[in-house]
Amino acid sequence: MSQGVIQGSMREAPLPDIIQLVSQGGKSGCFHVQQEGSRARIYLKDGRIIHAVTHAGEGFEALMEVALWLEGNYRFEEVVPDVPTTISKPNASILMELGRRMDEWRVISQKVPSVDLYPASTLLPGDVPHGVNPREARVLTMATGYYNVAELAELAEKPVLSVAKDLYGLVMAGHVVMKGIRSGKPPKVDGPAAPKPARELVPVSEMLGLSAPASAPVGSESREDETEIVRLQPPPPLPRLQGFPENEEPMPETVGGGVAGNTLPVAPPKAAAPVQDDPQRMVKLMNFTQRIAQAAKMVLPEAQHDMVNRLQAKATQQLISGEGPEAVKGLALAISRGAVDTGCDADMVRTLNTHLKALFTTK
């Protein structure tokens, strides 16, 4: 039996913030993370992340898969983990990378909403795309509508997020549309990475346990005479990985930020209650620092994003130390001052301040 449970929705509070909050207490246990049919487990020992497992694999890259799950649920159980140590990086770098990938996916998913959609080129024979870098050009040659995003990533031997980022640029340029059904023909690929015959192909989405392809196509419809829905064979049984049982109870439905059990008891409402004694309030404040950082990154050039990340990390430490809302306000002011100090022009600083002020107005 676990000694206590923390559970909630990733829409209400980003998972990196929740993991950091739990790790600061030096706790050992397991985060159960679920989005639709996909599940992951993230293990902590004495506050340090030591292992992660999904249906596709284990270790650091398995943990990074969760970056594509923005609306799932989490549940932390305080138990003694009996799993191997597959992750040796410090928590700070792990959570920063996870947060960075989540930020990227939030933007990318506006144009590439699912890795189960099929990108198809809009170019006619003989058309030459303009403003396309070599990496995007390679993805464009494979975007025939036959492979979905996850399958393209496997074919290109690249991370899914990297391929999705290239597709985002191609969709923005009008060179690619995202479709909900398989169409076209397999692209010509030289070397050992050439795809298997169409009717033997098992989509990566099924192998990874991802959700089914969207029923409604995104972008332009394909012509019926060139569309073929491939009859797929059942995927092979997945190997059982240590720390990931085959028959896991379904994740209970929760309201974001809910806390159950006695792991981190919530103190009765008091005007002067320290923020570290109220986990739900702590999560909300940490979530707000995330929103401030995201708003700043939307305005500031990429060269300033490291500055924003450092200031956000400092504000998080201040929250953990009990400074409360003052740390959040200080983060916004520090980012504004940092933009000035690093030479951002007056118009950009005014735009930044407008975005930050809007956050506090609608808080």
Structure, explained:
- By secondary structure, this protein is α+β, with helices and mostly antiparallel strands.
- It has three domains: 4-89 and 246-261, no CATH class; 118-222, no CATH class; 275-361, no CATH class.
- It is 38% helix and 12% strand.
- The protein contains eleven helices and eight strands.
- It has helices at residues 15-24, 60-65, 91-108, 134-142, 149-156, 160-172, 204-207, 279-299, 305-320, 325-341, 346-361, and strands at 4-9, 29-35, 38-45, 48-54, 73-77, 118-121, 176-179, 259-261.
- The strands form two sheets. It has a six-stranded antiparallel beta sheet with strand order 4-3-2-5-1-8. It has a two-stranded antiparallel sheet with strand order 6-7.
- The longest helix has 21 residues, at 279-299.
- It is flat, with a radius of gyration of 22 Å.
The count of domains is: 3
Supply Rg. 22 Å
Distance, first to last CA: 38 Å
Q: Estimate the global geometry from the Cα principal axes.
A: flat
Mean pLDDT reading? 76
Count of helical segments?
11
Largest sheet: spatial strand order? 4-3-2-5-1-8
Fraction in helix: 25-40%
Main beta-sheet strand count, sense and barrel state: 6 strands, antiparallel
Number of strands: 8
What structural class do the secondary elements suggest?
alpha+beta
